[in-house]
Amino acid sequence: MSEEELHDHDRGLSFDLPTLARRRMLALGGGGLLAVAGCAAEASGGGGGSTSSPSAAATEADASCAAIPDETGGPYPADGSNGVNVLTESGIVRGDITSSFGSASGVAEGVPLTIELTVVDAASGCGAGLQGAAVYLWHCDRDGNYSLYSQGIENENYLRGVQETDASGLVTFTSVFPACYEGRWPHIHFEVYRSLDQATAARNALKTSQLALPEDVCDTVYDSDGYSRSVQSFARVSLDTDNVFSDGSTLQLATVTGEVSQGYVASLRLGV
After folding, report:
1. Is the separation of the CB atoms in 202 and 77 below 8 Å?
2. Cβ contact 154:86 at 8 Å
3. What pLDDT sits at residue 52?
4. Per-residue model confidence (pLDDT) at position 39
5. 33: domain CATH number?
6. Alpha-carbon gap, residue 265 to 240, rounded angstroms
7. For residues 231 and 223, what is the distance between their CA atoms, to the nearest angstrom?
8. Which H or E element spans position 255?
9. Do residues 194 and 33 touch, judged by C-beta distance below 8 A?
10. Residue-range definition of the domain harbouring residue 188
11. What distances in angstroms separate CA 228 from CA 104, 125, 218, one per listed residue?
12. Of 56, 123, 126, 227, which residue is least crowded by CB atoms under 10 Å?
């Protein structure tokens, strides 16, 4: 099956709970259990340089707080839902996801991108970050290919990693800017879990969603060396026509700062 045919399908991690009450809440699942987790103030993401798109991390509860929409994990999740499960591999818990781990040695090339995600409890107004949750993040490389699935990189596992949220609910990944491939707006996949111990299979995820990258930043990156394959694909798609983001992208559109020469920082608040 060709890369284009594969991409056509893409349309569309437990700390021990200290009380029995919390265990009962865990069994209930959903946003209710999250209200008991974490009480530190949420950290705000970002960096220097120019800024694009709406504010991603609030420092206190606000009226616009809402849970980020559930979205498809796509055909390349490597979370046990479609073949391979990288979540059970030693080494998956890491911040720098640019290189493969274990027996693989590949390195993803591209414009540097730091991804900062702050997990908050939407049910309590998004004012406190959730400590001890886990985020599994993955995305395509600068050629639009996914490790563990795409032809030629089936044995690589770069651009995939899991991080545990800190006292502010923050996780940070070091990566590269993803491509735009045919039919999809430039995006990053992620799953949120109650804890690292739970982040072993997609069935345990509290939330599966996607992050959208801002148009002006994408234009700039795709005009740089190594991203020529993205230019035409990006010209043929918009947030309004993308079948994941077309129903609204406000809660998924990251704030991005930086420049091509020094890299970018993408920040997003994840209400769960």
Report:
1. yes
2. no
3. 53
4. 33
5. 2.60.130.10
6. 24
7. 7
8. strand 255-259
9. yes
10. 3-271
11. 27, 42, 12
12. 123
3-state secondary structure 53-96: CCCCCCCCCCCCCCCCCCCCCCCCCCECCCCCEHHHCCCCECCE
Whether residue 167 contacts residue 100, with contact meaning beta carbons closer than 8 Å, is answered with no
If one counts every other C-beta atom within 10 angstroms of the C-beta of residue 260, the result is 16
The pTM is what? 0.80
Q: To 5 degrees, how large is the angle CA 136–CA 166–CA 16?
A: 80
- For every residue of 135-191, DSSP letters joined together read EEEE---TTS--TTTSTT-TT---SEEEEE--TTSEEEEEEEPPP--TTS-SEEEEE
Number of domains in the chain: 1
Contact 198, 230 (CB under 8 A): no
Walking along the chain (272 residues) 10 residues at a time, the average pLDDT comes out as 44 35 35 36 36 43 78 98 98 99 98 99 90 99 98 98 98 99 98 98 98 99 98 98 96 98 98 96
